[in-house]
UniProtKB/TrEMBL annotation:
Location of the Roadblock/LAMTOR2 domain: 34-121
SUPFAM superfamilies: Roadblock/LC7 domain
Xref: InterPro entries: Roadblock/LAMTOR2_dom
Membrane-crossing residue ranges in chain numbering: none
Domain of life of the organism encoding this protein: Bacteria
Protein name (Swiss-Prot/TrEMBL): Roadblock/LAMTOR2 domain-containing protein
Amino acid sequence: MPLPTRKLGATPAFPVPQGIREAHPDAAAATRALAKIRDEVDRVNITGLLVASRDGLLLASDTQEIEDDSVAAMAAASVGLATRFIGQAGLGEARGAMFQGSLGHVCVFPVQGPVLLVVFARPDTTMGLFNVVARQALTLLQDALTTGN
């Protein structure tokens, strides 16, 4: 027996969205804060910055050749995993998740409340220098978010 088909002119199975979806409540503050710190970080070593929510939504970015929405979702997942891993290991509270790849480094930091900072660096940046400049970016973002709200 063939499957039933919809007659022409029938109502769609899913409602058509009306209007534009609302932006995340922290997006405007994150965009302003990222613009404020963009020129204050070590751009020789830092190749990109991204701000995401803890539920994986993109709030603001200053990156190149990266799928920002996917990175925001992975940032939230990595902080969740780091929190569980650090807790299971009895090492206190997670302060970040750092990854080293053949083409560079990336670190995800919880900033404040539901905000995360993702910092990207060149492959020739040492892990020590990356840690210093990434924490500088974190401090600048925290200050910008605090004074901007």
